[in-house]
UniProtKB/TrEMBL annotation:
Residues 14-150 form the AP complex mu/sigma subunit domain. The lineage of its organism: Eukaryota, Metazoa, Chordata, Craniata, Vertebrata. This is Coatomer subunit zeta. Oligomeric complex that consists of at least the alpha, beta, beta', gamma, delta, epsilon and zeta subunits. One of its GO terms (biological process) is intracellular protein transport. InterPro entries: AP_mu_sigma_su (IPR022775), Coatomer_zeta (IPR039652), Longin-like_dom_sf (IPR011012). GO terms for cellular component: COPI vesicle coat; Golgi membrane. Its main location: cytoplasm. Belongs to the adaptor complexes small subunit family. It is found in: Cytoplasm; Golgi apparatus membrane; Cytoplasmic vesicle, COPI-coated vesicle membrane. PANTHER family: COATOMER SUBUNIT ZETA-2, ZETA-COAT PROTEIN. It comes from Pelobates cultripes (Western spadefoot toad). Keywords: Cytoplasm, Cytoplasmic vesicle, ER-Golgi transport, Golgi apparatus, Membrane, Protein transport, Transport. Gene3D superfamilies: 3.30.450.60.
Length: 182
């Protein structure tokens, strides 16, 4: 008998937090999802703990307070992604890598504390494109960058085309000159 009742509940890959700290362990950006860390005090204590643990060692995967935290250093900042104890570490790593690669691309490989602070709107957009309410939506940085990049219009404004035509410095003058020679 093939019954839908016997199937396990579908599960979405989720994160509990995405955090960016400077080299001193101070918060640059933190987004917490769910109620794992309900108060600001608990969040700050958790950030201090993971910052202290990553400064002492070069580990990339931490088990802290019953959660899994992955980290990646970018010059003088460290990006963290925090998942539940049963969460797939490879998927968490792909989301963290997507965040870091998107930051590097959007900030033109200048990912440091000052550039993050100057471009905080872009940093928030990157996180929102990758994670929505704790659910990992994207793990490919190219797609994130493509969605966030503003496309410029390749055609010049009409006023410039008219000016080029009147002054004879545009493409129209070249075709007119060729016509005169024939």
């Amino acid at each position: 008998m093939n019954s839908l009742e016997n199937l396990p509940d579908p599960s979405l890959y989720t994160v509990r937090a995405a955090i960016i700290l400077d080299h001193d362990g101070h918060r640059l950006l933190a987004k917490y999802y769910g109620d794992s860390f309900p108060s600001l005090k608990e969040q700050r204590e958790f950030e201090k703990r993971i910052s202290h643990m990553t400064q002492r060692s070069e580990c990339e995967v931490l088990l802290v307070d019953g959660v899994t935290a992955l980290c990646q250093r970018l010059s003088d900042v460290t990006c963290y992604i925090v998942g539940g104890p049963q969460e797939n570490e490879l998927l968490l790593l792909s989301a963290l890598t997507c965040i870091c690669e998107s930051l590097c691309h959007m900030l033109r490989k200048n990912v440091d504390r000052s550039s993050l602070m100057e471009n905080m709107d872009t940093v928030c957009l990157i996180l929102d494109e990758i994670i929505d309410q704790g659910v990992i939506l994207e793990s490919e940085s190219e797609k994130v960058v493509q969605r966030l990049s503003f496309k410029t219009i390749s055609e010049p404004a009409f006023g410039f085309v008219l000016f080029d035509y009147l002054t004879g410095s545009g493409d129209h003058s070249d075709s007119r000159k060729r016509g005169d020679l024939e």
